[in-house]
Amino acid sequence: MAKDKKLVEAITSMEDDFAQWYTDVVTKAELVGYTSVKGCMVIKPAGYAIWENIQHELDRRFKETGVENVYLPMFIPESLLEKEKDHVEGFAPEVAWVTHGGLEPLQERMCVRPTSETLFCDLYSRDVHSHRDLPKIYNQWCSVVRWEKTTRPFLRSREFLWQEGHTAHATAEEAEARTIQMLNVYADFCEEVLAIPVIKGRKTDKEKFAGAEATYTIESLMHDGKALQSGTSHNFGDGFAKAFDIQYADKDNTLKYVHQTSWGMTTRMIGALIMVHGDNSGLVLPPRIAPTQVMVIPIRQDAAGVMDKALEIREALKAADIRVKLDDSEKSPGWKFSEQEMRGIPVRVELGPKDIENGQAVLVRRDTREKYIVSINEIPAKAAELLEEIQANLYNKALAHRNSHTYDVTTYEEFDKTVNQRPGFIRAMWCGCRECEDKIKEDFAATSRCIPFEQEQLSDVCVCCGKPAKKMVYWGRAY
Amino acid sequence: MAKDKKLVEAITSMEDDFAQWYTDVVTKAELVGYTSVKGCMVIKPAGYAIWENIQHELDRRFKETGVENVYLPMFIPESLLEKEKDHVEGFAPEVAWVTHGGLEPLQERMCVRPTSETLFCDLYSRDVHSHRDLPKIYNQWCSVVRWEKTTRPFLRSREFLWQEGHTAHATAEEAEARTIQMLNVYADFCEEVLAIPVIKGRKTDKEKFAGAEATYTIESLMHDGKALQSGTSHNFGDGFAKAFDIQYADKDNTLKYVHQTSWGMTTRMIGALIMVHGDNSGLVLPPRIAPTQVMVIPIRQDAAGVMDKALEIREALKAADIRVKLDDSEKSPGWKFSEQEMRGIPVRVELGPKDIENGQAVLVRRDTREKYIVSINEIPAKAAELLEEIQANLYNKALAHRNSHTYDVTTYEEFDKTVNQRPGFIRAMWCGCRECEDKIKEDFAATSRCIPFEQEQLSDVCVCCGKPAKKMVYWGRAY
Ligand SMILES: [Zn+2]
Ligand SMILES: [Zn+2]
């Protein structure tokens, strides 16, 4: 069994070095690979299959709310990017520029989209004329590029995959309702499918999106106590509409500007899955997002009847709508267990000649490693039950972890001590001034994560300046 | 009814000007829109929904053959692109170059992928070590860029969407088998789903892919008699493996080069759907690919009971797994009919107060315009039957059109006359020399479309030079 341990031993333990543990997991679980393209990664089959499931689940939820998918160009001419002042200031320093097409220099250089607000505005300015043309509720699945200096797989890379929804509405109220609606779609998706509890709230002006009137966010807490911005939804008001002249003739025949929103979720959620649920044996995937939910692993697969029974079990699980695979490779069973654990497959079925003699098999949960001896004809029902339990358990564990790593502080000294000694969310009151936010960032490398919708009055004064407090804010160090 | 005709009148008839008819259809059916990005288009909801169905159907077929999806970077460093000589010569003149990241010039410029052979080779050179690592059967869905001078929606644009499969195998035989297997997947998909008959064959050396040992193709014929290359599958032999040093230790412990393939299908198939099935009222979509298969159009929808009944019919059709929509907008019924026809929706249900009184509705086929009076509770069954019939009819019509526009010629004079007077496929014998191919292209602007798998001996001599003929070839002018 010495060999079997090798795969696990190849992972640094997360207590020793969380960053190295993360890198080990993404590479050993074969989610990503390195490339000759600096700052860019390959998303391998095991990683891309997770993204396909995320896409499938989100896309279905989007369409239920009336979203239509489109595809816009990947290039943005410089003059188009520059139309909205805040937006270009936010993005110009981090875009990739195309300057030549074929053998010739371009008349106007173009950037590869870092986000597509400007392109959607270009589209809406052509297609929106009357109130009958509204609302436009479009989304696209694509990749975007931001020229990051330091990169980490899924969390920060020069190119990443995402969806970006862009809508145009007749009224401010409708735009605000859509902004909140999509934030709720993201929150429900994270909690129900990814088993990641989130805090919903609004970004401060300092942290909001370049060009937005209001940015809403869902924030989650990773195992190491760092925060991860997990999805954002922006209300642009009519700022972009004015910059791009997107007007419609209302029922009363007057021209009005549209109100716009945008909202996005990215492949960084795969990073969140790793850092919320993973352990020192590798990835732990919530069943609802796991590409493979059950792995059947035969023991002594060359013995008479073992492979037949294993195939039979696979078919029975498939018939019960469970995503199942059979590992019939030539590796040792121990090695296969280790691989199944590394890849985070929620349940495995172990099956050897003796089990078959007794008409049973062993089911093992990935999350708790509990073992269950189950008669063969009851495997599909038991597996389905375990998958439900694992999904619930992962959510509950993540919630308990977040709760036990959320600290209420009322003084700056407490803030200092907490942020440095107890990684997690800090809840503290804030006066609403940019200066205090800047000071906290400078002193502690912590940022305001959000002004949560669910407010509490922890104290009457700002944790930083002592002036009257306006809002409770979640603070933390973040990815 | 004058108004209702306007939409149709907005389309040029295809007999008058086929190119303008095409442009009118793609814009009036709202498949694409123009943008401020030169040579690039927006794919609007009606167009993107077709692409989603193509993706869904192809992806399912791919996965049944063991394909795994991945995602590779969109950028290719110049040094990587240059590794395979033929390949770089084929693509370098038409790529877009990124020269700056953020505010700084790049040390090495990178192109936006025109295709990803070099990136997959980079990946395989890292990941393939042993025969146990083979085969690799990867695919990615993405957009690619080729700096075209003249562009047409779907057929030729600077950026387009596609899938590109890339595989690596232990033996030449396995690679060849995969190349043909994927060609067959494309051919079956075109014929069964898109209702487009195809000719399967091999490209001549002149027309094969840059860097390939053999390129196989499926060729289809458009309504105007021009050919469209509809899908290609390439066998690279070990050429790329040698350029990128992709070797594996075989069972006998010797190092061997892998054998590779690639294969792709693109959004140009939406152009094919338009040009094979469309008519002077707009788009005609085969039911299996149509995002909406049945449109329910109420007549006098304000009259008591009409909307209730229309909703009931929509729900009944939905329950029968038919993709159905109800047009409850404020437009006139005639305008709605015209829109449904323009968008190519295969069947419409017309339903007014009188119909309801009689317990019936009118079903109208988009392809033949035949009308059927159907009792309301039989609508789902009748609609399903009509959808099957339309699918078959469109395929048969396209096949009959191709057959009646395929001409066998044995002399150069006949070739001349046919290519100029009777647009379509020309079948003629060929000696196998590049010179004859070049001459035919120069004289007639016609290219060899393929050397079909199904050969016939039309004559013993080359149609061009009179030397002994080796193969029958399909020739034609092409998109
Ligand atoms: Zn303060
Ligand atoms: Zn010849």
Automatic annotation (TrEMBL), chains A, B:
GO terms for molecular function: ATP binding; catalytic activity, acting on a protein; proline-tRNA ligase activity; transferase activity. It catalyses: tRNA(Pro) + L-proline + ATP = L-prolyl-tRNA(Pro) + AMP + diphosphate. One of its GO terms (biological process) is prolyl-tRNA aminoacylation. Its EC number is 6.1.1.15. Its main location: cytoplasm. Keywords: Aminoacyl-tRNA synthetase, ATP-binding, Cytoplasm, Ligase, Nucleotide-binding, Protein biosynthesis. PROSITE patterns: AA_TRNA_LIGASE_II (PS50862). InterPro entries: aa-tRNA-synt_IIb, aa-tRNA-synth_II, aa-tRNA-synth_II/BPL/LPL, Anticodon-bd, Anticodon-bd_dom_sf, Pro-tRNA-ligase_IIa, Pro-tRNA-ligase_IIa_arc-type, Pro-tRNA_ligase_II_C. It is found in: Cytoplasm. The keyword Protein biosynthesis applies. Residues 45-286 form the Aminoacyl-transfer RNA synthetases class-II family profile domain. SMART domains: ProRS-C_1. GO terms for cellular component: aminoacyl-tRNA synthetase multienzyme complex; cytoplasm. The keyword Transferase does not apply. Pfam families: HGTP_anticodon, ProRS-C_1, tRNA-synt_2b. CDD domains: ProRS_anticodon_zinc, ProRS_core_arch_euk. Belongs to the class-II aminoacyl-tRNA synthetase family. ProS type 3 subfamily. Consists of three domains: the N-terminal catalytic domain, the anticodon-binding domain and the C-terminal extension. Homodimer. HAMAP family: Pro_tRNA_synth_type3. Catalyzes the attachment of proline to tRNA(Pro) in a two-step reaction: proline is first activated by ATP to form Pro-AMP and then transferred to the acceptor end of tRNA(Pro). This is Proline--tRNA ligase. The lineage of its organism: Bacteria, Bacillati, Bacillota, Clostridia, Lachnospirales. The gene is proS.
